[in-house]
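From the shared-data thread, chain only:
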Amino acid sequence: MAERKLFKGNEAVAEAAVRAGCRYFFGYPITPQNEIPEYMARRLPEVGGLFLQAESEVAAINMVYGAAGTGARVMTSSSSPGISLKQEGISYIAGAELPCLIVNMVRGGPGLGGIQPAQSDYFQAVKGGGHGDYYTIVYAPASIQEMVDLTMQAFDVAETYRMPVMILGDGVLGQMMEPVEFREPAPREVPAKDWATTGAKDGRAPRLINSIYLQPEALFKHNLKIAERFEQAKKNEVMCEKAKTDDADIVLVAYGTTARICRSVMDRARAAGLKVGLIRPITVSPFPYDEIGEVARTAKAFLTVEMSLGQMVEDVKVAVSGAAPVHFYGTTGGVIPTAAEILERVEEIARAEVRK
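Structure, as tokens:
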């Protein structure tokens, strides 16, 4: 059994990346993720890796592009405004079919906003964020242990589908402390990196990595190839947790920190005689549409809870597809919803269902 150690979330992500073989980190400081680059600055030289604080987020993501092109395991991290600055580079990386890990510890916005936790980057993360047709795989952990586990598997997943993977955390997960184990991920057969620019040695043909296709037909085929990989990810990588949904009349849908609060709401509601369940998407891209749709066959209502003014709720509505009403409760600007507030909304929905 692996030893359990107490770690702050940001530092746990960094250590998990190192143990997964990450040897290059490029970034720029911004609260509330600063402990990630700070940890990497100290840790990577110990394992023969390289940490570099770039002059900007734009520079950092382009350094990620360069390192990923050699086949190295590389990551960057930031918080909301910094991720916005990286979006063009993320689109380039996706267009060049390069694997990497991007961590976003989300803070409130828009603009510079504040440094408190939020979930208002959901659209940016799961709908692309940058220009053009491309896809990323996005994990939304709800604990530091899960953040560690997903980080350790993220590099394999990125290399399997040759696309960026994002960890969508928030300021709570980044700053809180919990005991964790650094467990080896399940073995996965990763394709050979026969695309990497490692130098045309031993007479092999040169390799070129870019994202420019001037002929429309060629770009069409290229985009379809990227899309097909994401279709495979939809079949193989979707992850979500269901709790007490078999007999639930009202189903809460939440991810990350908010899901932790909703679990408490579910327990309180059950104690009060209300049949409430919880669906927690772990991959928010690809989204668990089928899993939510299955629960919609029996549930009477859904309540999506987010630290935003309503983003994931749109995907929940698509998944439910009119089978039941989908309600929403959200907070914004870094305000964290309370269990009491959410429970009050659940009770309102329950009373409305009784009156039908």
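The two ends are 53 Å apart (CA to CA).
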